[in-house]
Amino acid sequence: MTLPNTPSPEPIPGETSAYSRTRIVLHWLSAAVILWATFSGFGVALLDQNDPFRLWVESFNPQLTSLFIPFFAWRLWLAIRAPGRHSAKNVQARLASAAHKAIYGTVAGVLITGVLMMSHPVMLLALVPLPQLIHSKIALLELHQLHHVLCAVLAGLVALHLAAVVLHQVRGKSVLARMS
Ligand code: HEM
Ligand code: HEM
Question: What residues does each domain of the chain span?
Answer without folding.
Answer: 21-179
